[in-house]
């Protein structure tokens, strides 16, 4: 059982996933800071100085913090849009590489014999034209 676990844990996919989760967590912190410290204050300023983080209403003893919810939704939208742009960039790069490879594969390769025959043909055409 230990050997199976070791094979599973050392496989490339698991390590890639772990790296992705760690970087995703750090990216989430950056985006949260972007939303909380830059975007939402500007949106609040545009809307007349509203501080979204303090928006709430009381229902009995409970406090519903809908401002924090709005910030979380904006946070999600920024993260989703950033990931969309990154994936789109990777797809475009992948398509360009694929097209370049297809061009290389579809380009006709001329052997030395064919090249020599083409040159002889062209020379013969020139001789006919001059005579």
Write the layout of secondary structure elements.
Blueprint (H helix, E strand, L loop, with lengths): L1 H9 L1 H35 L10 E3 L2 E3 L1 H41 L5 H19 L1
Antiparallel strand pairs: 1-2
The proportion of residues in beta strands is under 5%
* Side-by-side strand order of the widest sheet: 1-2
Question: How much is the radius of gyration in Å?
Answer: 31 Å
Uncertain spans, ≥5 residues at pLDDT below 50?
none
Averaged pLDDT, please?
A: 84
Describe this protein's structure.
- This protein has a two-stranded antiparallel ribbon.
- The mean pLDDT is 84.
- α2 crosses α3.
- The longest helix is centred in the middle third of the chain and has 41 residues, at 66-106.
- By secondary structure, it is mainly alpha-helical.
- β1 (57-59) and β2 form a beta hairpin.
- It has helices at 2-10, 12-46, 66-106, 112-130; strands spanning 57-59, 62-64.
Attribute tags:
131 residues; mainly alpha; two-stranded antiparallel sheet; 2 strands; 5% strand; elongated
Question: Short description, anyone?
Answer:
With 131 residues, the protein is mainly alpha-helical.
């Amino acid at each position: 059982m230990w050997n199976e676990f070791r094979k599973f844990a050392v496989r490339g996919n698991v390590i890639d996933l772990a790296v992705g989760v760690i970087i995703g967590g750090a990216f989430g912190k950056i985006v949260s800071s972007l939303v909380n410290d830059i975007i939402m204050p500007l949106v609040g300023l545009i809307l007349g100085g509203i501080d979204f983080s303090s928006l709430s209403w009381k229902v009995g003893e409970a406090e519903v913090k809908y401002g924090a919810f709005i910030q979380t939704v904006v946070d999600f939208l920024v993260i989703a849009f950033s990931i969309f742009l990154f994936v789109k960039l990777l797809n475009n790069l992948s398509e360009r590489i694929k097209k370049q490879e297809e061009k290389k594969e579809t380009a006709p390769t001329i052997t030395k014999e064919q090249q020599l025959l083409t040159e002889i043909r062209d020379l013969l055409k020139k001789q006919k034209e001059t005579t």
